[in-house]
What we know:
Oligomer: single chain
Helix content: 25-40%
Structural class: alpha/beta
Bound molecules: ligand PMT
Number of domains: 2
Amino acid sequence: xxxxQGKNIVLGISGGIxxxxxxxxxxxxxxxxxxxxxxxxxxxxxxxxxxxxxxxxSEPLHTSLWDDTSPIPHTRLGQNADVxxxxxxxxxxxxxxxxxxxxxxxxATLIATxxxxxxxxxxxxxxxxxxxxxxNIALLRSRGVIIVEPQSxxxxxxxxxxxxxxxxxxxxxxxxxxxxxxxxxxxxxVVITAGGTREPIDAVRVIANRSSGxxxxxxxxxxxxxxxxxTLISTVDIPVSSGISVVNVETAQQMQDAIAHVANSADVVIxxxxxxxxxxxxxxxxxIKKDQGIPAITLEPxxxxxxxxxxxxxxxxxxxxFAAETANLxxxxxxxxxxxxxxxxxxxxxxxxxxxxxxxxxAVTILSASGEMKxxxxxxxxxIATAVLDSVVKVQSAxxxxx
Length: 403
Ligand code: PMT
């Protein structure tokens, strides 16, 4: 977190149960040497105590446009900020920011700044998925606001779903990324696949797998923030930063066709998708009727996209595969690395708790064709993404060294 040292960070806290987590973010930013100016909305006071925030921050808490010692607190805070972070960001604050309704100090400061803004939404799943919130988030993203996606898990009241504030580590990483301004992939074209393919059995049924696409999307966001031009070939529909080109596909064949258009010009190709190994041989048109009895489904192999990319790879390209294993992690992954002619393979033991499919976290071992091995313990998928891209950059740097 060297990037935050000496930086002016405005931390906005709005009224949600997750406000208590912002205390950890605040403490760690101050410990790392940042000057943190806190702003709380009126409703945030219902969840955390102003004394706690003032005691931990670098300057007294700001709460109102009218009670501050400065006559125009929002312009001072907004103009001095190197970054503004709102954690948690409620649906109201998101809407007010999107619409420019500067009716409290926090939103007025968000509008009175040219600094980058990091919003960390937290709310119930129904609210997060409401079209008004979805549209406001899309609008803010299109203006360059960085959204730290909420995670799924237990919410206030015991419900389970998406909407939980990202963990402090993920929020700190997003701030670090903004302030360190690392553009080591600038000018490069990075192609990433995400999600699980769906192979039709008939007009309505498919063979699918458990991939959520979260790992692939995290890599896409990290590559984008590092300056890459990103093409994301995806089977799922998750909002992404504007500037990332998304190509939607469903089957392994469609994924291969989409990659064929971009693979040759790509500097980096990362296959994080879970591609089906088999697909049904389609022998019926329309829907198989239940009263025709249980159908016998004949399977045939799908194209091995990664193996094909490995056999046709341009010399400058870094080709990265993933390996989803449940036993002999390193040996199996190394076998795939060699057979498919990859530069790197990211092995995850998908039988371990919190690892692989669907989770917000992952744990991986990254193997390189030159024999290096790096393990990353259980961490959020953005941290894994950063480690994968760091390994890519390392391969590229090694290639530039005189042999
Ligand atoms: O999407 P999430 O829920 O976040 O989960 C992440 C993940 C578990 C899907 C991801 O971390 C992961 O492991 N992706 C690869 C899953 C997989 O298909 O692994 P595999 O060992 O079966 O395949 C090896 C590699 O070959 C993969 O890069 C795969 O994309 C590729 N492949 C596989 C079959 C095929 N027909 N064509 C391919 O290109």
